[in-house]
Amino acid sequence: MRVMNAVETAEALPYPALIEALRDMFRSGCEMPLRHHHTVAVPGEPDATLLLMPAWVPGRYMGVKLVSVFPGNVTRGLPSISGQYMLSDATTGAGLALLDGAVLTARRTAAASALAADYLARRDAGHLVIVGTGSLSRALAEAHSQVRPIRKVTVWGRRAEAAEAVAADLRATLGCEALATTDLEGAVRRADIVSAATMSQTPLVLGEWLAEGCHVDLVGAYKPTMRESDDTAIRRARVHVDTRAGAMKEGGDIALPLASGVLSAEAIAGDLYDLTRGLAPGRQTAAEITLFKSVGAALEDLAGAILAFEASTAAKAQTQ
């Protein structure tokens, strides 16, 4: 069985290939049972979350991810997300690969956002605003730059020094203009794409700030009590999700408006199954506001794990 550390997992998951792997998997589908979602008490700190996410393609591959989210790690200078992914042969059950779950999660999450933006963001979208400074902030900027001509990235975080650090990294890795800001409203009002990846309990991206033609990408606020956007954003936007079953239940940006009547299930324009299969249209006009809410799906992990395993296997064969 191949064991892939964080560096090896990242190298085997370049964003262009990963975005296309997700597109193909959403088009073809796989078996994806409801994931286990458990709250873990951490004395004196916010509750942690334990997730077990299985999926398989009959006769080909099966896998399961064990991942944890510990919000209190931010005070320790540690990543909030950690975990492992086990990929197996779906004919024999034999183990094939053990991948770094945190890297896989970050990269497939960013790739799913980029996949959605490929259908929903304006073709000329050049200004990306990143809300949040966690591990996903860099991944989201890199992934979005694969599908749109991102020329400028503005980073906002609760800690100005963290936003400055992310902006500096993006200047070095993407080679585009990247700067930090303390003025979230001003940045959002000028954005073509707003991508939020936070653990906020209350809205950060307000609908009244959104310019015509803006695309909003929400990947944080992973519990039904958490939220990154307000009701006005939901009312003004054409709403899409990664999977209906997950987003309608688990993400507060969708679950709370559904519960209050601000949003109806029928008003959700489509999910990634619909978009990739041509069952729902992407962006309709240059002026419309679009919104995508992601809570993650085991399908995405399986697609990434297969890509990483096959790429690693091919690379090893070339060196022999």
Automatic annotation (TrEMBL):
A Pfam family per the record: OCD_Mu_crystall
GO MF assignments: oxidoreductase activity
InterPro entries, per the entry: NAD(P)-bd_dom_sf, ODC_Mu_crystall, ODC_N
Annotated GO CC locations: cytoplasm
Secretion signal, residue range per the UniProt entry: none
Example of a GO biological process term: carboxylic acid metabolic process
Gene3D superfamilies linked: NAD(P)-binding Rossmann-like Domain (3.40.50.720), ornithine cyclodeaminase, domain 1 (3.30.1780.10)
Family: Belongs to the ornithine cyclodeaminase/mu-crystallin family.
Record protein name field: Ornithine cyclodeaminase family protein
Organism listed in the record: Pannonibacter tanglangensis
